[in-house]
Amino acid sequence: MEYCIADTKCSEVVKCRADIDNLTGWQKSQNGAIHRVEANVVEMDKKFDAKFDKLLYWIMAQLAATIIGGAAILLRG
What we know:
Layout: H1 13-21, H2 25-76
């Protein structure tokens, strides 16, 4: 039995669906669990990206404040 995995070349969608239909109940439940884990990983990745973006913006704001503060000191003196 051949399974359709993202890394493999599967030219016949019908064949892939037939392979999924031939899975046992236990295999189908494992397949469902894999899809749930994949969905959770995608969701966690989105949350990480959002937190990383916030951190990046905070760092850029701190850098801008430091540059502006340094320029103000140089212009005064």
